[in-house]
Amino acid sequence: MSTKFLVKPYRRSFCRPLITSRGAWAQREGFLLRMESEDGIGYGEVAPIPSFGSETIDAAEDFLRTITIEGEEVSTANLPACAFALSAASQSIHREGPKQKEYAICALLSAGAAVLQEAEKKIEQGYETLKWKIGVKSLNIELKQARDLFDLLPKGASLRLDANAALVPPALDSWLELLGEFSSQVDFLEQPLPCGQEPLMADAMQNTGISIALDESLNGANAGHWLEPGAWAGPLVVKAPIMGDVEWLSSRLKPLARQLVLSSVFETGVGMESVFRLADTLPEVDRALGYDTVNAFNDALTQIKAGPIICASQRQCYDPEQIWNSI
User: Distance between CA atoms of 152 and 266, rounded to whole angstroms?
Assistant: First the structure.
């Protein structure tokens, strides 16, 4: 029996558009991939984000059309989201690997005036790490909101601030001055400056002691360098579904496991479980995952329930066939 590929496109509307410094994101498009072979059936997900360096939806669709018509795998060069999906589907056929683990989840807060109310709810639900998008409103407004957020945090809780590369050096200085007042409650400041300004961010981290994470830099022109052991001293925010073959990723990321923050690309439950299985191969990963994305959509494409912990028992109920049939 030769390998057979089936593909279903999906388009999901956010319950509320995701607002970042890049603008508003209202719909998530991608593809589910079903791989059938004599060994069984496996599933993967193609969830591109071109602005983060992946292929476009059109390029992914062209590739998937090729493998479904010809029934053979072709090169995934320059198609990291497709490579992730194919390798994840192949691995899921055999379903062998490390024991399924549970993971702490970082709460995702919306930009805007409602952030304090959201933070209160997330804290009541048991989240100990919260993430807030900055670089959306004016600097003075966000500095005031940040101070209020830190005052709200209970003992032991911490805050991640994600600028999506939107700051300029003077604004970064202002943020670091504020964060220095609350250093014990700062998890990290994520990608404050654009790709290419990593030396400035490294100097800022060293001079202030505030941890700075790379995100966009890991998908930019010099991405490979920052995934070399010792290249970056702070956290590394990894969006695995747009970073290539799963087996290659596991090998590449293992030496960096303690720095890793695995982060969602707003994929369905298929891609989500593929990332969790990747995390299972990296036992030293101990930072809260950026996967408070379940309630971003109101559909049947994710089976995990939102919460501060993704339990192994929830993961054991994963049924990709049900998700496939929901499209």
Answer: 28
State whether 254 and 315 are in the same domain.
yes
Burial 133-167 (b: 16+ CB within 10 A, else e): bbbbbeeeebbebbeebbeebeeebbbbbbbbbbb
Q: Tens digits of per-residue pLDDT, 48-73?
A: 999 999 999 999 999 999 998 765 66
Q: Which residues contact 178 (CB under 8 A, 6 or more apart)?
A: 143, 146, 147
Q: In terms of domains, do 81 and 229 share one? A: no
* 10 & 115 share domain: no
Same domain, 57 and 116: no
The range of the structural domain enclosing residue 14 comes to 4-94
Write down which residue in 74, 94, 114 finishes a domain: 94
Which amino acid, 58? D
The residue among 266 and 96 whose pLDDT is bigger is: 266
Tell me how crowded residue 72 is: count the other CB atoms within 10 A of its CB. Answer: 10
Question: The whole model's pTM is what?
Answer: 0.95
Count CB-CB contacts under 10 A for residue 28: 21
The domain tally of the chain equals 2
